[in-house]
Amino acid sequence: MNKTLTMIFCLLFLLVGCSDVEKTEEKTLPASLAIKTSIQGDHILSSFVDGTQFDTNDYKEKRLLLGFFNYKNKDATHMLKTLQKLKQYESKYNFKIFGVSINYNDIEGLKAYLKENNIVLPIVLEGPALAIAEKYKLENEVAFVGLDAKHKAFFGVKKYIFVRPGGEQQLTDYVKENLSVKTYQPMEPRLGINPTAPDFEAKTMDGKTIRLSQYKNKVVLLFFFSPTCPHCRNEVTYLRDDLYKKYQSQGLVVLGVVSSTVDEKNKKILDSFKITWPVIVDTGLKLRKQFSHNRSVPENFIIDKAGKVVFHAPGYAARFNDLYELKVRKLLGLKTDVSLSDKHFTNAQHCGVCHEDEYMAWSLTSHAQAWETLSLKSETGNEACVACHTTGFNHVKGYKPIENTKTGKTFVRVPYNMTQVQCEVCHGLGGPHVTKENPMAAQTIKKTCLACHTEKWSPDFDLEKLLPLVNHSRKEEIKGMTLEQRETLIEN
User: Fold this and answer.
1) Pairing of β 309-314 and β 402-403
2) pLDDT value at position 440?
3) 196 located within any domain
């Protein structure tokens, strides 16, 4: 390995640079282990550290995470041990993690290092030409790349920068996000189970001590934010000028939480917001960690009058405003004006505000997991697949493939509120609130189901047997189940 590759190793990540020309390399090593690496297109052949063959064809339709390292680099152990902790998700989320060692000329030293540091990841060996690293344009000794189910690179890091306080969590979150690994926050509602918010005590910017319990019989919106975050500023504006302004007198409480030091600069920004709700200074993240381990803001939790966390929203976008208002009105006991429309499809969360039991029952069905099955197989851009795993595809009031005006080819971009097989697939646009038809009539629902559950994709499909699993008829039974029992329903 030349000095340039030894010292530098920067992940540039340009797939257009990947070559389809076969490359083969051989070298007899002092440890009598011959390494042969062959690459043709997205097919890779090499060797594991124990001398057995590594072949990406053995992992067809499985996503791969390749962590490249030189074991003598001080950052290697941190990366390998962090990636190793993600192995628990491999089976459920259809991926496999491998370490890729560039120490082709020091096999015995590599083995000793792996044993000493208790590294149990399967380790693939690079050959002298570093053909795998070259394929993915890697030029740093510690870096990683994620391959989709078709073994094309789709995410990675340029240089391993996570050896720092909080870095392990940041790397873990980044990988989970790209591999669609769903993990929940401590106070996030799950599958119809609403956790009880902890009765915290905190200091506000003006030195007052407040407790959550003092807002009993109120609806509390706990709002984690940063004064310098532009999305947070947009939410502050919405809350100040709209939601809080409308419903403060009706019993809505907003508690802002700044999880950073309020220095002179931040205080000026906060003063400029002219907000009237309490702002808690959460230095040390003591309060944040009770509710969430997210690294991003804004993040919101809505707590009902009984102290239960009933709604969680990471991030902010204006398109969620009507959902926020609908939820707040329901919790305050006010009339909930139906926000469904005959002009466009609506996210199932809107339906769930009023139809809580039905939404809970739906969330435990395969319909509510339909998008994830495409993500795990890297088929989210396949028009033939998204038609049956989303809502509103090719509908006149839904969404359609987008044409590239330069090439004439089409591609799919699924809107945020169209993923999953949602309420309106079965109940029609706007459901009974809007449509004058009866989409749940026997012949209509049969036609709807069989459009996707074809002989090719569902050869054993039995409508009479399976319809009760998705028509909310089990909602009363499910209400008596624990969280663990509900999770089992999804797995089965």
Assistant:
1) unpaired
2) 76
3) no
Distance set, CA 314 to CA 27, 224, 232, 469, 478 (Å): 51, 10, 11, 30, 27
Q: Which of 269, 228, 221, 267 is nearest to 244 (CA)?
A: 221
Q: If you average pLDDT over every residue of the chain, what do you get? A: 89
CATH number, domain with residue 85 = 3.40.30.10
pLDDT surpasses 70 at 135: yes
Same domain as 156, residue 20: yes
The range of the structural domain enclosing residue 107 comes to 3-178
Q: Which residues contact 423 (CB under 8 A, 6 or more apart)?
A: 348, 351, 362, 431
Place of tokens 């590594």: 54
Residue 162 lies in a domain: yes
Sign of CA dihedral 465, 470, 475, 478: positive
Is 267 found in the same domain as 235?
yes
The torsion angles phi and psi of 380, rounded to 5 degrees, stand at -70, -10
CA angle at residue 445 from 443 to 448, to 5 degrees? 110
User: pLDDT-based confidence at 293, cuts 50/70/90?
Assistant: confident
**SS3 letters across 29-54:** CCCCCCEEEEEECCEEEEEECCCCEE
Q: In this predicted structure, what is the pLDDT of residue 8?
A: 36
pLDDT in tens, 257-290: 998 778 899 999 999 999 999 999 998 899 999 9
CB within 8 Å of 492: residues ≥ 6 apart: none
pLDDT for the residue 34: 59
Which residues are bridge partners to 36 per DSSP?
Answer: 26
pLDDT of residue 29: 40
Give the SS3 label for residue 156.
Answer: strand
The residue written with tokens 């395969």 in the block is 366
